[in-house]
Amino acid sequence: MTDPEQRAQLAELEAKIARLKAKDAPRPHQEEHYSQAQMAWRMVIELVAGLLIGFGMGYGLDVLLGTMPVFLVIFTLLGVAAGVKTMMRSAAEIQQGMDKPAQGGDERAKNGD
Question: Where exactly are the structural domains of the chain?
């Protein structure tokens, strides 16, 4: 084999490896396309999950310590706050994804022609 043939084979092999790595690479969360209903359900689930986790922790501590309403109220409020914070972070992530210009597409449409 000559040296140019080896280089061509090596370049072909590197291209195959790059394609396979790109195919298996995890995509950023913002690149996934969600419908508006899916985004709304995601936010609702995040809020309810925070509420339920706080409620469960507070109820568990109250049962263990025998102080029924104290930790239940505190941790429920903390759970709601955590859920709202997570929901707001998701909303900011979605808004950031919408603010980005669309990749690809017609170059004339981008320039306003």
Answer: 36-95
